[in-house]
Amino acid sequence: MTTVERLDSPILRRSDSGGAVDRTDATDDTISLRLRAAGSSFFSAMQLLPYRRREAMYALHAFCREVDDIADGDATRTLKSILLPDWRSEIALLYVKRPQHTITRALSEAVDLYGLQCHDFLAIIDGMEMDAQADIRAPSLDELDLYCYRVAVAVGRLSVRIFGEETRAGERVAAELGRALQLTNILRDLVEDARRQRLYLPREILQAHGIHATTPSWVLAHPALPDVCRDVAMLAEQHYSAAAKAIAACPRRTMRPAAVMLHIRALLHELLARGWKSLDEPVRIPSWRRLAFVLRHGLVGR
């Protein structure tokens, strides 16, 4: 469950004959079109980037979706334990300039242009393996923070480099905004995660409100759930505030996409307004508000 929305179908295709890989007709343009079709919350932010940086973000998004689809898919744990390490091999090939898959080929130029770090890609795969190897249920705060680092902060670290920001403030943006977005996703997706027998709400906060069970359906029905969620929302809010300060410390030109991504904070506020008694009631950011963020950060100042 990363901070990136799901694509409808995989781009990567293995050849029926074994080792070789079919490129099919999946090109950089296909990645772009699939991202647009998926209705990503981040698509408008990516549109603020120059062409090469934008294409790099499309490729990064596609990579995240591929490994996330493995972790969240219906394959057996045994098969997942094969497919995810296979992606480690693909990343290794990427960094010796022999990418074999459509997505790693699309990432190849970005690695050279923007200094994308191998360990960040591997951290994302580590996070997917946390989901694939066992159903996460009420992790400790430390375990949850490690999960957020792998599935969200590592994505943010790659993203800010693509944006053109390599300063310590940029690293801080990735750290804070990544955690904020992931905690927001956790609060938004409680029901969906419970269907997969997962529960990402931290153990310490659950126990502080008298919830000692870890069965997702039981926890979601507990009368103290709203109190737990409000505490987690406050954690997310702290990260959003820290992210906003870090963004302000960076050049506006490079951080415009991150500033637009910060509008996901509005989703957290919508969740708080709705509460956690009607979990099936969808919560979305109004389109006019998303447009306002794009206009504000895309057209005002450079």
Q: Any low-confidence stretches, pLDDT <50, length ≥5?
A: 4-26, 291-302
* Helix and strand composition category: mainly alpha
Number of helices: 15
Largest β-sheet summary: 2 strands, antiparallel
Helix share bin: 55-70%
Mean pLDDT: 84
- CATH superfamily annotation of the largest domain: Farnesyl Diphosphate Synthase
Coarse morphology? globular
Classify the beta-strand content into a percent band: under 5%
Oligomer: single chain
Through-space gap between termini: 33 Å
CATH topology of the largest domain: Farnesyl Diphosphate Synthase
CATH class of the largest domain: Mainly Alpha
Which strand order do you get reading across the main beta sheet? Answer: 1-2
Number of E strands: 2
Written overview of the protein:
It is globular, with a radius of gyration of 19 Å. It is 67% helix and 1% strand. Strands 1-2 form a two-stranded antiparallel sheet. The chain folds into two domains: 134 residues, Orthogonal Bundle (Farnesyl Diphosphate Synthase); 168 residues, Orthogonal Bundle (Farnesyl Diphosphate Synthase), CATH 1.10.600.10. It is an all-alpha fold and 302 residues long. The C terminus is likely disordered. α4 packs across α5. The chain starts with 12 loop residues before the first strand and ends with a helix. It has 15 helices and two strands.
